[in-house]
Amino acid sequence: MLIIAGRAGDGTCGVSDHSLFLAIALSQHIQVSLLCREGMGPRDEYKKILDSSNVHLVPIKSFGINNFKGVLATINQIKPDIIHLQYPAREFRLSAFPLSLALEKRRLGKSLLGLTLHEYAVSHPLRKLYSSLLMRASDFIIVPSWRSFSVLRNGYAQRVFHIPDGAFFHLVLESLSIGKGSFKRRNRLLYFGFPSKTKRLGELIKIVRNLRNHKKLSQITLGIVSQSYYESSAKNLSSSLSQFVEFFPFQDVVSLYKLAQESLLVIFPFSFDTHRSSLINALSFNMPIYYFGVEEGLEEHFKDGLCFYSEKGDMEQNELILRELIVNLLQNYEETSRRILQAQSKLLESLNISKIANAHALLYNNLLRSEST
Prior knowledge:
This protein is α/β, with parallel strands linked by helices and 373 residues long. The protein has helices spanning 14-26, 44-51, 68-78, 97-103, 125-137, 146-152, 169-175, 201-211, 227-236, 239-242, 253-261, 277-282, 315-331, 333-350, 353-372; strands at 2-6, 33-37, 56-60, 82-87, 112-117, 140-142, 160-161, 188-192, 221-225, 245-248, 265-268, 289-291. The strands form 2 sheets. The protein has a 7-stranded parallel beta sheet, with helices on both faces. Strands 10-9-8-11-12 form a 5-stranded parallel beta sheet, sandwiched between helices.
């Protein structure tokens, strides 16, 4: 099979990072090629894992329209049973390649064309239109987001499948022999991830400001790991915010792990959904995590792994729950974190990239079996 994600784990695109590790996990079962632009991955900390896998990395000059015939020639040379396109991805942001591939599907020979749609429910109307054109041409559609799956399953009932994104940071830490170690814990809440309109960072900052008004929590700070916020904050961070908010640039997995271990709590100002790769990978850090709710319908699927979140998801309730949780962590960190980590270990087991790859492989085999009959 052939996975197309534009890049191969260069660290600039969550979709391409996940696609690389999906390919690595799948290569234990089937022959996998990964098509990517030259010079776009993988980053150094991923290379050891890739080199020990059976993934065949296929670099091309570009995904631009001028190279479309060249990409088609490469695909037809590989002759995959399945072509699996990952969308949206950073490499395709200004590229017509995904749509060109869909429109020229007849030129792909007998290959099945699959699409993983990483965003849909909250996408811009133009992206939704683009995505709908891709879906019409696809033989099957995988939707990691439960919310998006709930929207799409009625319209594409026979072709749409829900498979979550998988956690892989633990594989990176293991490959580099990074153990638990000894870290000095600070009174810091830590957030990391790419910014988007669905991540309520402004609300989180207000909550932390309010929490600091309580005597027991006056020393609490907030760390935000995000390259774009780091670059913009250098000039725009007000003196009042600089007292308790610290912005960090992009971090590799090991550096991010150390930052997390030096923090009190990892926090995500959005609801848990099965496409939230930063939250899912944070499970690998063995740190207590708080999130602003759970997507409707997921509670039953992961009821043993979910804890400490706001059922309403509003700012007032999040602040109340966080206040109690942080006070308990400060008073008795080991005891308070134990129950959270026990639940999170079950969630990590369910979302481990190896289990997610198995779900993909089963789907591929079923589709090919149906096609042959």
